[in-house]
Amino acid sequence: MGDRVTTPVLDAPATEVVPRVSLRRLSPALAAWATGAAVYLLTTAYHYRALGIAVRPAKLFFEDWLVWDTGHYLDIATGGYTPFDQYAFFPLYPLILRGTDYLPGGVRVAGPIVTMLIALAALIVVQLLTEREFDRETARRTVFYLIAFPTAFFLFAPYNEGLFVLLAATALYAARKQAWWLAGLAGGLAAGTRTFGLLLLLPLAYEYVRQYHRPRWSSLWLLLVPAGLGAYLLYSWQSAGDALAFAHAQDSWHRAYAWPLVPQWHAVRLLGSQPLLSAYSLLYVQQLALFALAATTLVLCVAGPWKLRRDQRYLLVYALVLFLPLLVTEVGPQDPLGSIHRFLLEIIPIFMILGRVGRRDLLDRFLLLGMMALNVINMLTFLTKNTFVA
Predict the structure, then answer these.
(1) What percent of the chain lies above the pLDDT cut of 90?
(2) What's residue 13's pLDDT?
(3) Within a 10 A sphere around the Cβ of 269, how many other Cβ atoms?
(4) In contact, 157 and 115? CB cutoff 8 Å
(5) Which of 27, 143, 198, 263 has its CA 20 to 30 A from that of 120?
(6) Which H helix or E strand runs over 376?
(7) Distance CA 65, CA 48 (A)
(8) How far apart are CA 275 and CA 299, in angstroms?
(9) What gap in Å lies between CA 364 and CA 346, rounded to an integer?
(10) pLDDT of 61 strictly over 70
(11) What are the contacts of 204-208 at 24+ separation with CB within 8 A?
(12) Which of 220, 159, 116 is nearest to 345 (CA)?
């Protein structure tokens, strides 16, 4: 049997944007967050043993989280955009980190803790959004699948993934509640967080047109989305003399664009040239499997017993505008799919559909155990400063 179908109320007044919540109502998100935090903190603590480190001062607990891109976020937070290639990292998350530098422990301790709290807020909003569209049980599975996903530890690590998920989910939820000022504000902040935050304008505009069929004064709030990117362009022009510094800085990170599915085909070819159990072959298998899982859930959005209702198609638009760029983005000859499995975290409808599909207990357990096992393995790889998941 399919999930219970509920029809959202689209005429809720703006005063009801923030729903009445209690610890009991939020227990799925809180439980998912607490489980994820426990797993990640224990993995961090015990990985010292694998490295042969007998004693680690508590004040250095988060040091091994501060690797790869986190170093750039910390540098921007404390010293600004130097060198030029750091303009590829959008400013909102470094600004938040900068604020944590005034808290006990400074940016290297308070930063990861605040990031973990952002992840909690993201799970709460994703739960509320999923409950509004489906039901409580689907929402419970959705947040657990999100926190168990093989790269979900990036929600807790000092990266901007958790912040983007929080802002995107807030924008989508506000649009359904007709709080367009909040949808535009959250969308604008998302555009200041990630390169593709600007694309939130498309699902928000789609939902606006679906509800009203014609422009109203409230549609002007959606201009806040491109304004978020515009603010960064203005800053880049003033500080670096190049309004498109974020795009030009991408050259330093070997990101390029190819024809659709060419990066995936390159990964398949590289897989065939590697020993069966080599580190790279395992990486390619995981990337391609997660890409296929995401593509399958998008198909299920429009076909089969779990397809979205007509009024929910803004979720499909959101998923597509974030998924389609992954078809054409390539990152160097050795790892063409780059961080594609990390960016899948931001496509919230993937986890909503899994939340519906996981209604069967056996499949639910298989998804949770399989994804969390890969999650821990990937986190250990990340902590040991291995490039395969950075």
Answers:
(1) 72
(2) 45
(3) 11
(4) yes
(5) 198
(6) helix 361-383
(7) 12
(8) 32
(9) 21
(10) yes
(11) 204/171, 204/172, 204/175, 204/314, 206/313, 206/314, 206/317, 207/175, 207/176, 207/314, 208/175, 208/180
(12) 159
Q: Is the CB of residue 371 less than 8 Å from the CB of residue 38?
A: no
Q: Which residue has the higher pLDDT, 139 or 340?
A: 139
Look up residue 73 and give its two tokens: 């976020």
Q: Which helix (H) or strand (E) holds 256?
A: strand 255-257
Helix (H, G, I), strand (E, B) or coil at 331: strand
CA dihedral of 259, 264, 267, 269, whole degrees rounded to 10: -70
Q: How many Cα atoms within 13 Å fall on the side-chain side of residue 82?
A: 4
SS3 330: strand
CA distances from 144 to 64, 89, 255, 355 (A): 25, 29, 32, 9
Query: Quick one: tokens of 152?
Result: 């979900």
